[in-house]
Prior knowledge:
By secondary structure, the chain is an alpha+beta fold. It has a single domain, classed as Glutaredoxin (3-Layer(aba) Sandwich). It contains nine helices and four strands. Strands 2-1-3-4 form a four-stranded mixed beta sheet, sandwiched between helices. Helix 2 (55-62) packs across helix 3 (67-83), helix 4 runs antiparallel to helix 5 (114-128) and helix 5 crosses helix 6. The longest helix is centred in the middle third of the chain and has 17 residues, at 67-83. It is globular.
Amino acid sequence: MRVEIWSDIACPWCYIGKRRFDVALSRFDHRDEVDVQWRSFELDPSAPLVREEPYLDRLAAKYRMTLPEADALVDRMIEAGAQNGVVLRFDRAKPANTFDAHRLLHLARTAQLQADLAERMFKATFTRGAQTADPGTLVALAEDAGLGADEVRAVLAGDAYAADVRADERRAADLGITSVPFFVMAGIGLAGAQPPDVLLGVLEEAWAVTGQSS
């Protein structure tokens, strides 16, 4: 059974959602028969390659909040992250353009390393405050996940997997996806970083929909 997850490494809720999904999948009786595919979604396709603006200021501007309101939202995300083993350092995080990161996640799919690379990218962005549009950073993260450095550099130097990223984004638009994370399992769509119990319930429902024996 395939599970598709539209996500962006510039999205803290996607990081939390990944950890919650990991817990749900670990509890699913048929986890060894699940093919998880990470799909591309850029929250800000026009984002610069380097961003210096503090996260709090950008959050307030994007959602037209006051700084105290944005600060309260950040506190809620930090608490949700902590409850799921995720360290969110918004004093460091300055997520920028993620197009090349998405291209590398498609490369990682060919080696069955998508989840490993996504985890490293999320941590680099939101825990370490790394500039994950930087080619050197991306090569190091991909190599750490198990990909070959030369192959990664070759992808970054050209336009490999660009069409795959755009295809994911077109499909997201066709499905009406406007925010991430967004999960699709056996035609069942689920939006948001849902709790593990909810995700497990949808996994079980999707398994039943496929008509496979328990």
